[in-house]
Amino acid sequence: MDDQTFKALCDASYLSFNAEEKEEFTRNLESIIDFASTVKQYDCAYDETEDMEYVSLSDLREDVMLDSYPPEKLLENTEPFLNCYVIPKLMDN
Amino acid sequence: MELMNQTVKNLRQSLDRREISARELALEYLDLIGELNPALQALAGVYDEGEVLACAENAQKLIDKGNASALTGIPAAISDNILTSGRATSCASKMLENFIPPFDADVIETLKETECVILGKTVMDEFGIGHSPKSGAAVGAGLAVFALGTDTGGALGQSAAFNGLTGLRPTYGRVSRFGLASFASSLDQIGPIAQTAEDCAMILNVISNPDKRDAVCFGRNNRGQAEDFTAKIGAGVKGLKIAVPEQFLNHQTISEQTKNAVLDAAKEFENQGAVLINSAFERASKTEMFDYAVPAYYIISSAEASSNLSRYDGVNYGLRGVGETYYEQIADSRGRGFGDEVKRRILFGNFVLSDNNYNNYFKKALALRQKIKAEYDEIFKTVDIILTPTLPKISETFDYSDPASMYHTDICTIPPALAGLPSASTTCGYTTCGLPIGMTLTGKKSDEQTVLQVADCFERIFNPDL
Amino acid sequence: MKLIPTIGLEIHAELMTNSKVFCSCSAAYGGGPNSRCCPGCSAFPGTLPALNKKAVELIIKAGAVMNCEISRFTRWDRKNYFYPDLPRAYQISQLFRPVCKNGYVDIETPQGKTRIKITQIHLEEDAGKLIHDRSPKYSLADYNRSGMALIEIVTAPDFHSAEEACAFVEKIRNMLRYADICDGRMEQGSLRCDVNISLAPEGAPLGVRAEIKNLNSIRSISRAIEYEIYRHTQAINNNQPLYQQTRRFSDATGETEALRDKENAHDYRYLPDPNIPPIVLAESEIEAIIAAIPEMPEKRFARYTEEMGITKSDAEILLESKTLSDLFENALKEYDNPKSMCAFILTELLRRVNLGEIELENLPFSASDIGRLVKYGYTDKISRGDMKEILRGMIEKNKTPEEICDDGGYWIKEDLSLVESVIDEVIKNNPNPVAQYKNGEQKVFGFLMGQASKALKGKATPVAIKEMLESKLKG
Hints:
Oligomer: heterotrimer
Number of domains of chain B: 2
Number of helices of chain B: 16
Largest interface: A-B, 46 and 61 residues
Number of helices of chain C: 15
Radius of gyration of chain C: 30 Å
CATH architecture of the largest domain in chain B: Alpha-Beta Complex
Shape of chain C: elongated
Shape of chain B: globular
Number of strands of chain B: 11
Distance between the termini of chain C: 92 Å
Largest sheet of chain B: 11 strands, mixed
Strand order of the largest sheet of chain C: 2-6-7-10-1-11-12-13-14
Structural class of chain C: alpha+beta
Structural class of chain B: alpha/beta
Number of strands of chain C: 16
């Protein structure tokens, strides 16, 4: 696996690795991909209409509004500011 | 009365006959946990005595009023990826070490309603991703009468097999997944691990409610009625057609001991009047499916995991990383919060979903899953149950750094999981070193009754004491 | 060298549902930060999407009014990307199997009629809101909007001017409003538009494309397109490179600036959402939903002009806004006199709106209040000249027309004893016509009525005079 591919995967995953980790994870990934590549040899087609059991319109949730959670309860697992979740300032906005 | 390794059924009787109170029972288990868990580490979190006893008192009230259901007052353990309101639910991840859910999973709501006595949360692999399922350990060690675990590629059966117990993976969608922290949503399912198939049936009766919050949950049969999964317990196997895939039993991964134990079990079923059908797997594609199921599973489950685990960024909850920018902070949260195996799956999941690989890997795996379903449909035209080992061989050490070793643990349990079929694992023998050997009985979609019927039949012969 | 702009639009419209698309939280606009949230729309572990039926019905309606094919089989995909306004780090959307596709909408500009093709309309969820101005170091996330039901209308690149694009957006907005699909409040972001634009010489392959994100007024759409036409033209004429880019328009400068190059664009790693079963729609269900679509403006126009006798230009004004048209129709329920009603609404009521005294979307009185006011004026319960004054009172004092008339003494007083004595006098002074009337000569009634009215001018209503005269003549 080339560096560019590995970097793209890390970017997509929001994971970063130091040089040593990178080497190990690259090796692991190569071996997993190698193992998974066996699926290519089987000849079969995918039918997206038959993938999951489907439902009809009447099975869906009725449009009824219910009470939301009190913000304090939702925010218990973080340190909120002004009842909002906090992230580092985004520059592109 | 000896409490160790008691069944739900026996304890139910004792409680209902007032031979023991729910409080006494809970105290016995708390004592045992206090004594054994520090060394065993089968429970990751044990509930406070006060809380457990309060629940037991409530259970006693229900019993006294004659309103007890199958699990009222029965001490249980819950896998730590099933959310419990106000109680830590870590999914065995550093990411959620301090996470306190603000709501209960559907199955927890149900257990609380019936005053089932929850003792604590079991240890597990991080987010259920890994090769060493553990939810059965607490039950195996006698620290709980049963456990609710989760299953993506066969963990319930495998964990039962490791511990000499019975584990049931219900049909996909049978039990609500609401409140189960997702690993691979198209495969995740909650199920029981207990001493017997009959116990599993009793537990499934309680937890298989329809739940509008989980769109794939059907819960009831097509007439909208609750099903009694104990209906065929004790009915024997006379006339049932059981498929034994003999070619597959010669698969390189399956040990001689395991193969023989399963074949002996088959013979026993025959003695009991079942019809063994060997022809169901005659066509090569039928045996082959065990081989391609494993990589297909690995691809689908990793792809879904990569997406499901993206919400863990430490912003709303979970381990909060540090960093100057959004990317740095999130990458730090995830870098420190996730273990290596989880990271590998996320990277691999993103690999198979990326533009260049989607068709060759992910779509192919979806196609293979459809093919497996079709193979099963064909097999089930002529048989009622498929008999396989649960684990290809019984060993205490595997080399998990080699992904091909997946075959050595998961090859038997993954195909039914991919097809969403119900399967139960129960003990069918012991190795020369005395380790239990499990067999898996796979049934038609929604036919947990027959799966449990066959497992129960064997258990009554193999272990008449229970 | 003449450069032709080629423009495609992606319009995001928030659906008028009570609850969000995948959970039961309120879908109302605004609210304190994170006050309209639950573990589901805040992406807690263990939560699952429960699709809102109304949202599916509304997108089917949208497809129907835009002449789309409605798919019998439809399913949902996850679009994966990290951004703090998207707490699950994936958006549930539809890539491969949208509910609606292959539609069209006809627009009219001074240059003529054009048919705009709709590639697809799909259902998805909105993202939360980020707040950047409360702290120098941090951005804040509020998920009230997270999970609101949204449709995305994707057009073919069929536009060649800002004028056409704006005409289309206005038309779509109006259609969505008339069909009760979206309230179309661009200033609140319930309707937003992305513009894809490229320029090339006539007949040449399409040029390099820029995408302008999140335009939230018709004016910004127009200005952004005009600016892009200018920018692309300059670049092409001066042989400067153009890049495939996502850009943002600034209302302050009237210019666009690059957000990111497409080279670094996300690979969204779509996958079918395993938590949402596909839906198979029955023909009968689709038909029932389409049958329930409220009358579209074209139909109303025909009814107003042909059945009600309203002039075409007045009908156009009434129909420009669904709120106004609805007000008109509801007022007619009180008093079925379309021409008078239309006249009063278009002159008096709209004048107040144009003066900024009231907002059409937020009127301090009901349609029925207006209907009754017009009825009193045209049935001589009050003087027509006073209606204007009474309307002002209703606005200023927030009262019903009856209350204003009571308070201000606007009711025409009927002094019945005066009427009686005058009529008695008329009957006494005109014995011959009275005798003729009693012999069945109805036409003399008008003469007698005229005599009485002359004597009672301004002191009694014609209705009261007529009633009294009739009863006296019969007696």
